[in-house]
Amino acid sequence: MELSILNQAGVATGKKIQLNDEIFGIEPNDHAIYLDVKQFLANNRQGTAKAKQRSENAHSTRKLGRQKGGGGARPGDLKSPVRVGGGTIFGPVPRDYSFKLNRKVKQLARRSALSLRAKNGQIIVLDALNFDAPKTKAMAEVLAKLNVTGKKVLFVLPENNATVLKSANNIQRTNVTTVNELNTYAIMNSNAVVLLESAVPAIEATFNA
């Protein structure tokens, strides 16, 4: 796939870039994408929800009524789950939601996500992204020039750039990541993926496996 390279002003530079079809042009595997997104969300769950069971409730164990002759079910103590303030039946307990996923499945998922964005014309390649100082206004102007204002936009850089990151921090739906941190969830959770020209070789070297 061949794309025109734009500058920060959204104007074509006249240069073109050839994207690797093994990464940006495969038939997307929906199930691999589903598994990778599921793992990402599961691994980020705290798993600290907790409800007190019957044995953990700080109530008296005194029997509340006679065993027989009350006209109803046999009464228990205040810890009984059927009473207000009693223990919780099958309540949540702290647990680990994370699970493992094969490396090849994750690679396939990321290539599928990038191919899906490329297929839908949602990938933009910039020659560079430079700001003199961290300014939200400067990043907002870039978004406006690229016609992606208000959309979920993911900027992919070859390496960390504090100036770009701080410029995008206060803009809703705009995220900045590096090639090493690029994941399927971030790609699928965006309407437009903006790649720096220098990041493309790194992506192809990382995901071409």
Task: Please provide a written account of the structure.
It is a single chain. This protein is α/β, with parallel strands linked by helices and 209 residues long. It has a single domain (2-46, 99-207), classed as Ribosomal Protein L4, Chain: A (3-Layer(aba) Sandwich). Helix content is 32%, strand content 15%. It has 7 helices and 6 strands, in the order E-E-H-H-H-E-H-E-H-E-H-E-H. It has a 6-stranded mixed β-sheet. The longest helix has 17 residues, at 103-119. The radius of gyration is 27 Å and the shape is elongated. The two termini are 19 Å apart. The model has no long low-confidence stretch (mean pLDDT 94).
Please state how the strands of the largest beta sheet are arranged side by side: 2-1-3-6-4-5
Query: In DSSP terms, counting alpha (H) and pi (I) runs of 4 or more, how many helices?
Result: 7
Unreliable sequence segments: none
Shape: elongated
Main CATH class: Alpha Beta
Order of helices and strands: EEHHHEHEHEHEH
Helix content: 25-40%
Record field, number of beta strands: 6
* Number of individual domains: 1
Largest beta sheet, briefly?
6 strands, mixed
